[in-house]
Amino acid sequence: MARGGLWASTLLSLAAVAYSGGALAADGDPLTDPDVSLSGTAVLVHRAGDDRPAIRLTNDGFKQMGSAWRTKRVNLTRSFEIAFTARLRGGVRNGADGIAFVVQGIGPRALGGWGGGIGYRGISRSVAVEFDTYQNTPDPNSNHVAVTLGGDPDQHIASAEPSIPLLGKPFRARIGYDAAAKRITVHVRTLAPGATEQLLLDESVDIARTTGENRGWIGFTGATGDVTSRQDVYDWVVTAPRA
């Protein structure tokens, strides 16, 4: 995806990055409220045995929805890649509804609907990659990854079922955007040593055109409905080409 360019990668508390004059710059400070905008039920929590905070989008309550956005916008006309670890924990057999990585042009307080809305329904100028753990009527199953546009989780432009469960144990996801080719790719893997990534999706998407912005906000949303889940995102890494 770099296509000969130099790349810089920054891992912060949640991998905060800033763009200044087109170049990548590391904030270097632990993630604090000014670095990320939280809405709904989203909070920052510290995980046991780890000083790095996690974003907790929902906390095992009914009909919750939360969002967390980087307050510094990203250049959507250029390629980028994000990686993160998620742990979605429900009951013995199920949990709902899932989380999404979202790129949007609305603003750093954007928040969508609960339940099958996965916290991004109604965020009209957006591209979402959802990690869905509950089968609502439009869904293919209760363990799928999908790309959606325009804040509409009922219309998947593409979806795939990973070979690993999204609910229960933590998983690592990597999402790449090739701005020249206007393509988005999604990989997932377990956290087991030596685990191999699985390419789930490789789809044509023009993020800048869909969001209506050359510089937009990136972040995460999540929701629960009549079935609940505790949904955490951590070790968020953003990679982008240097100018």
UniProtKB/TrEMBL annotation:
Signal sequence, start to end: 1-25
Signal listed as a keyword: yes
Pfam family, one: Lectin_L-type_dom
InterPro entries linked: ConA-like_dom_sf (IPR013320), Lectin_L-type_dom (IPR056573), Lectin_legB_Mn/Ca_BS (IPR019825), Leguminous_Lectin (IPR050258)
Top-rank lineage group of the source organism: Bacteria
Keyword terms of this UniProt record: Signal
Protein name: Legume lectin domain-containing protein
